């Protein structure tokens, strides 16, 4: 990288510019099969003006800029294949304000979801988006994150109301508003959310909050087959039951979670983990409605009556990653996700499970099935990181999701890991995305080598 | 317009090309203060390929292209200030398919909302977006329409899942998907929806459907003041009550509706018209919850127990436009809307009502207040169309909405009527929208002279 840029950064930010290899290594991440590429420098910023200064400098010198928050992305979103400057936003973690009438929180991008929810504890409101990690608001907005609650409360696309957004030349735009809706022009916020730092950097966000429901009831439901579980989900959603979480675990996942969580002792069958939100009567009738749906497909719902049981249940679900690593000792998990229309979910999962077996893989399956979204954690053997057969399996998984009218990622995003699928998924629409990228970042300094890169599945 | 374009259109479409002034006059619309500008030709298309043919031809010759559906837009969206070709999509009105599991309908752009809901009658599903007019799906998507149900079911932004989209050079892109969510790239669908035909034309849409709720209860609630009504709304929404419609009518609106609807005999006070959706117990508890909220602000809820009463109530609400015209005989209504955060709604309405009185206007106020959105129908005297004082009033209304952190339109959109406010509302973000427009339609053939036009409030 241009030494003048380094010098100027050091003048501006002093010790907050880090050039050591050991630090830079912490600010890159890549999925197996993608080379780890650290940035040339990491700069810790403390306010919007400092983001503007770094971006403006990089714009002047044509240097790559990548924003980092909690660094929990999974597809190489913060990898730096062209080097450049990583802007560490983790210290921009102030909760600027809460508006209880508008049910919004104004936050800096480094605020984490757990931090925000702790802060909200006395307000009767909560922030709903819950990806596995304790991710940052800026990062979650950038990757259009979701999680277990999205079936009821939506993804980040539905939960970011407005933002301040630093564009490629350092201009700051105010996008969106706290008004509940608008018909005045292009919804820039909607392309900013999910653009993975390739069009601009969030310097402040207004996010939606939701009233804490009067009643919350959780439970588990055992099925003879994944298909029975998925059909139950479709039936329950078709009736508009007040389901807030509906998570599938296949047999392998259940076994691993049983082994890891002392309080869990589930029959070794596919399960749904469920949570119902609403007022007391709504929840009661939704639970009854669900019991009827499940009964039709041979499922038995077991309610967790006590708060501790419910907490233990979701802890077990959130600990799945660790459970799988404990179950498959010495192996390394490769997390991936796809998402398909609900009507294709059962067929897509069946074909995938058959493929896992035929490929001789260990890959427990868990899913936000109310969203048609499922995850695999492929437990890699030593040295399988670059394995051709693993990559071939991932290719079949992605192709399969597309053939069912779905998307190659429901929540992990594009990064470097899935960029080669952009053309197959989007066709002419990718040219349209590229035109937008070229218009808003003509020098291609914002997170280059990602979303619009000309790699394809064939050219892999 | 280039005579070669006319000739080629006639070769391709024969009698479906209309050049008569009387026909062309029906394919333009403008709010008071904006000149009516008919297109040079109207072409009725029957399928996507025909849209592609017209757009490609216009692209070749640099001729303007405007899409029309039900022609019910209010801000001059289908006006043709630069002439050109109007593509009449009203005959592309096939319902291509319904997927009850995914709860989606695939429709051509000319399908109207009432047509779709009639078609859905036996399915247990419905389409929720209900602007005043029986608008077309393509037009509603283009203007990001909403209506009375949006407080619960969202605007078109939340109810279009996927689309086929004809871009400026005639390329057709598939945008979005029927998968419930995606994290693969820019959300092009979200900028297509609300772009008012300036970036592309919808040739097919997948829209979301919702389960018809088990129980629907409607009612009216009378208040001593608008402020009491609005505070009740905020309180009810803050508790997560299952409100599907929550409409404000000020005293003037109530008087006019009473006079027009034989079944309506409301006390001459501000009112909320309400509807609750859910299962029987949810609705019952939400109604109870609402009664408590209203009581705190002196409101009395009166439930419409019978279906006929409920139907009459919403008919009265939907007939408001006609009621106002009947009440103010010989006057012409100018409809406008703004939208602000819920926390500012009461203050914004109060200031507006005071301004109406000070300006000596007759302008009943109705609003989708759960969305922070309210409408005025300014009843113009003869010759007031070009009135400086009316325009000054509209300017103050728009400025006021912005000063409260809101938007100059919640649902009517930009068209030609509100384009002069784009800069004041969006600042640097408007440059960003212009860059996207220039990237996707470099020759500026798609609905030119609208959204990105350099008019400003000062230059008016």
What does this molecule look like?
Two copies of one chain form a homodimer. Chain A has helices spanning 3-13, 21-24, 48-61, 113-119, 137-142, 150-153, 156-159, 188-192, 226-238, 251-260, 280-296, 307-318, 320-327, 342-358, 388-403, 422-426, 428-440; strands spanning 17-18, 41-44, 65-68, 85-88, 95-99, 104-107, 125-126, 160-167, 172-176, 200-208, 210-211, 215-222, 243-249, 271-278, 300-304, 332-339, 365-368, 373-380. Chain A is an alpha+beta fold. Among the domains of chain A are: 95-211, Uridine Diphospho-n-acetylenolpyruvylglucosamine Reductase, domain 3 (2-Layer Sandwich), CATH 3.30.465; 215-323, 2-Layer Sandwich (Alpha-Beta Plaits); 330-422, Alpha-Beta Plaits. The model of chain A has no long low-confidence stretch (mean pLDDT 95). Chains A, B: It comes from Pseudomonas fluorescens.
**Unreliable stretches of chain A, pLDDT < 50, 5 or more residues?**
none
Q: Of all protein chain pairs, which has the greatest interface, and how many residues does each chain bring to it?
A: A-B, 96 and 96 residues
SS field, number of helical segments of chain A: 17
Work out the helicity level of chain A: 25-40%
Instruction: Give the neighbour order of strands across the main sheet of chain A.
Output: 15-12-14-13-17-18-16
Let me know the largest β-sheet of chain A. 7 strands, antiparallel
The CATH top-level class label of one domain in chain A: Alpha Beta
Give the number of DSSP strands of chain A: 18
Helices and strands, with pairings:
2 copies of one chain form a homodimer.
Chain A: H1 3-13, E1 17-18, H2 21-24, E2 41-44, H3 48-61, E3 65-68, E4 85-88, E5 95-99, E6 104-107, H4 113-119, E7 125-126, H5 137-142, H6 150-153, H7 156-159, E8 160-167, E9 172-176, H8 188-192, E10 200-208, E11 210-211, E12 215-222, H9 226-238, E13 243-249, H10 251-260, E14 271-278, H11 280-296, E15 300-304, H12 307-318, H13 320-327, E16 332-339, H14 342-358, E17 365-368, E18 373-380, H15 388-403, H16 422-426, H17 428-440
Helix pairs in contact in A: 9-11, 9-14, 10-13, 14-15
């Amino acid at each position: 990288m241009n030494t003048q840029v380094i010098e100027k950064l050091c003048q501006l930010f002093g010790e907050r510019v880090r050039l050591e290899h050991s630090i830079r290594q912490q600010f890159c991440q890549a999925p197996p099969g993608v080379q780890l590429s650290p940035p040339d420098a990491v700069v810790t910023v403390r306010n919007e003006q400092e983001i503007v200064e770094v971006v403006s400098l990089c714009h002047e010198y044509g240097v790559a800029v990548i924003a980092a928050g909690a660094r929990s992305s999974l597809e190489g979103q913060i990898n730096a294949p062209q080097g450049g400057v990583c802007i560490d936003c983790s210290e921009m973690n102030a909760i600027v304000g809460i508006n209880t009438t508008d049910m919004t929180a104004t936050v800096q991008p480094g605020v984490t979801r757990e931090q925000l929810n702790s802060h909200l504890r006395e307000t009767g409101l909560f922030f709903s988006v819950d990806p596995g990690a304790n991710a940052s608001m800026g990062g979650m907005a950038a990757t259009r994150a979701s999680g277990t609650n999205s079936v009821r409360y939506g993804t980040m696309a539905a939960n970011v109301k407005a933002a301040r957004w630093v564009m490629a030349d350092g201009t700051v735009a105010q996008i969106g508003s706290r008004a509940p809706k608008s018909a005045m022009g292009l919804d820039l916020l909607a392309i900013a959310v999910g653009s993975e730092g390739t069009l601009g950097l969030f310097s402040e966000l207004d996010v939606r909050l939701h009233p804490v429901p009067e009643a919350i009831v959780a439970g588990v439901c055992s099925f003879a087959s994944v298909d029975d579980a998925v059909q139950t989900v479709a039936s329950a959603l078709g009736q508009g039951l007040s389901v807030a979480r509906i998570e599938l675990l296949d047999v392998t996942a259940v076994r691993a979670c049983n082994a890891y969580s002392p309080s869990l002792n589930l029959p070794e069958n596919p399960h749904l983990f469920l949570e119902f939100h609403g007022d007391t009567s709504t929840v009661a009738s939704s639970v009854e409605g669900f019991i009827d749906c499940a009964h039709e497909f041979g499922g038995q719902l077991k309610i967790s009556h006590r708060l501790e049981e419910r907490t233990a249940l979701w802890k077990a679900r959130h600990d799945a990653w660790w459970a799988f690593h404990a179950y498959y000792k010495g192996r390394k998990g490769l997390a991936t996700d796809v998402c398909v229309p609900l009507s294709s979910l059962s067929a897509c999962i069946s074909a995938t499970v058959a493929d896992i077996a035929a490929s001789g893989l260990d890959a427990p399956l868990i899913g936000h099935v109310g969203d048609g979204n499922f995850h695999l954690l492929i437990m890699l053997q030593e040295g399988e990181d670059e394995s051709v057969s693993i990559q071939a399996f991932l290719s079949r998984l992605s192709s399969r999701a597309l053939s069912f009218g779905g998307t190659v990622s429901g929540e992990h995003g594009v990064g470097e890991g899935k960029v080669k699928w952009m053309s197959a998924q989007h066709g002419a629409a990718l040219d349209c995305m590229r035109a937008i990228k070229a218009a808003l970042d003509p020098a291609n300094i914002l997170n280059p080598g990602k979303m619009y890169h000309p790699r394809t599945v064939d050219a892999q």
